[in-house]
Amino acid sequence: MVQYNFKKITKVPTGKDFVDIVLSRTQRQTPTVVHKGYAINRIRQFYMRKVKFTQTNFHEKLSTIIEEFPRLDDIHPFYGDLLHVLYNKDHYKLALGQINTARNLISKIAKDYVKLLKYGDSLYRCKALKVAALGRMCTVTKRIGPSLAYLDQIRQHMARLPSIDPNTRTILICGYPNVGKSSFINKITRADVDVQPYAFTTKSLFVGHTDYKYLRYQVIDTPGILDRPFEDRNIIEMCSITALAHLRAAVLFFLDISGSCGYTIAQQSALFHSIKSLFMNKPLIIVCNKTDLQSLEGISEDDKKLVEEMKSEAMKTLIGQGGEPREGAEVLLTMSTLTEQGVIAVKNAACERLLDQRVEVKMKSKKINDCLNRFHVAVPRPRDQKERPACIPQAVLEAKAKEAEKEKKKLERDLEEENGGAGVYSASLKKHYLLANDEWKEDNMPEILDGHNVYDFVDPDILQRLEELEKEEGLLQEQDDDEEEMDVEDLTPQQQKELAEIRRKKSILIREHRIKKSTAESRPIVPRKFDKDKRFTSERMGRQLSSLGLDPSKAIERVRSKSRGRKRERSADHDMDVDDDGSNKKMRARSLSRSRSRPPTNHWLKLERDLEEENGGAGVYSASLKKHYLLANDEWKEDNMPEILDGHNVYDFVDPDILQRLEELEKEEGLLQEQDDDEEEMDVEDLTPQQQKELAEIRRKKSILIREHRIKKSTAESRPIVPRKFDKDKRFTSERMGRQLSSLGLDPSKAIERVRSKSRGRKRERSADHDMDVDDDGSNKKMRARSLSRSRSRSRPPTSELVPGEGFKDSAQKIKAFKMGKKSVQKRNKDARKGEGDRVIPNLKPKHLYSGKRSNGKTTRR
Predict the structure, then answer these.
(1) DSSP assignment, residue 621?
(2) What is the largest CA-CA distance in the chain?
(3) Range ranked top by mean pLDDT from 369-373, 393-397, 749-753
(4) DSSP conformation letters of 542-589
(5) Which helix (H) or strand (E) element contains residue 157?
(6) Phi/psi of residue 650, each to 5°?
(7) pTM for the whole thing?
(8) Which of 105, 463, 540, 818 has its CA 20 to 30 A from that of 72?
């Protein structure tokens, strides 16, 4: 299936833009600096490269234009003729031919000037040849500017053409203007073609798609055609003629039998006969539209004859080659796009006719023989006169009967339709609840207040008790009225008048109270969000009580005692001393519990401050940060955290028998010391009395040092190095060591020299060979190595050498990491960036653009 997508054609630049694009690309992608001191071969190559690069860019751009635009001889004849109708194929071919000629001229210019540049004898001559070559190329490009502009206009128009597949199943609609073609395509497809009550509303081809028997059909709406000579038809009409001539489709010829389109049936019939040669070998259906205004039976006899002639001509097109009519075929249909009567029937008839015609054509083709050779239908020969119908097993028949008996599951939509429809039927969301008893499904959900179910506190006999209370209240009221009537005689006329007013208002309040008690307005507390206009205030209550002749002071005091203040230091003993029932006590208790200044005393949370005060105060109690750890076992909370050194857990290298081994070493050291003492005692006889005295003093101090060393070895003070922050009083100095060694009769000079050689000097040019030549154990060698490594003048180890603790697997990985690090900073160093966060954009001013003498001519430069 061939598809033509003209929207992918690249935009064609104008002549001036073409030159700018190519020359700017040459300037950016070729070297820009050359000096007259260079060798002449280098200068020649510099300018030859610019000329060749410019020619290559021109060639690529022009070749892209020539290749992307379609060749009219290679595409489908429908598109070829359509482009000829719209744009005149002669002009189109001339424009592409000029582009091709310009491409060849530019290649020839580049070839000639490269040959001349090979013999350039100076920088000036080479540069002049380069300027001449580029100038001639730009002149050729500017001369084809009109052709480039014309091709860009064609590209824009082609991109707006509908995507029509000439080889797929197609339904073509044609006829006079304003006969209902666009209304029909809007009804059967999702196209949105403009429909107006005047002629030539549709000025180009419009495409829609519809489905029939799971197959996709494209429907093409063509502009209206007038009955006039072929030479007089305009571009709009020629689009329709082109589609009728080249598309293999089912043709629907629309006929307006009402005459509202402005053309009579005779004129429409003349158009039909003038273009009937385009209907050959195509399924043709005559559609009588606008039957809502005029029925087919109501037209005149002359018009009926014309319609019958058109029908007879349509019958001849049923068979593509023979022209013989086919019985029972529908070639004349009626419909109304306004009432949609007959619209689907016309669509189905056209699709069916087209499908039959395509199948018939395929059956007549040579390919069908290859397909038929692959099929074989076996037909049994009759043995006798008995009828042998198809045998269906009994189990299959029963299964089909059961399926037919099964009732379709009723959906909520079906129930809604049965019970009055939307707005009447309300779906129950509770009927699918999974409960132990289905009778519980429609029960009301429990209402929870303060952690309790409200229904547990509801009295089922509340209505009966209310009636009894109201009756009792009525009796008491009558007694009070009788007593008051007895006392009325002792009152003055003014007091009697005030008492009557009080009784009237009291009776009104009682009635309102009884009404409110039975509604949802009986609220013990009015929340502030429902009293934004401050209607329920204590002042209003005081005015109402005063108007009734009552003292409102205690009532106002009680209301204020129940207010939810932030600072509240009164107890329940300060409340009004009035008779309240149980409900009022509960309400007062709830109001008190909501007070912010009364936290519950039985829910105090112990803070770290309270624990600190209980356990000795600050400086004695230390808060443990580990007690809130969430561990599998609470006993693990106080365990020591592992110490990590060089990526290893220190505890993994701790010997559990270290103390026992230390004792054995000390015993062995003591035995060796006794042997040394015995050997020394044997040599004492050869010493003078003065030397013997000094030796005794040395041994005494040596034993003291050994004991001190053994004590320190068991404590945390046995440090190989004393940091300066722990030696602020300068106790461990070389002078002190010299004095101590001198008091022992030893020469301290070499020891002091060695200590000074380990100091961290800034300028140091001595090596490890100048150290003291004394016998040291392994620990002293490590200490000396560490001291040397801290020196600033000591050279670093090679990059390839692996140092423990750096985090590399081997030396190869370390070398690779160093290379990646250097490579990552190359671009930053090249751009003179200060670091990764340097985002400065420098104001570059190239010297060759902002300095030097300028030549004569225009001030615009590239």
Answers:
(1) B
(2) 168
(3) 393-397
(4) HHHHHHTT---HHHHHHHHHTS--SS----GGGS------HHHHHHHH
(5) helix 145-159
(6) -60, -35
(7) 0.43
(8) 105
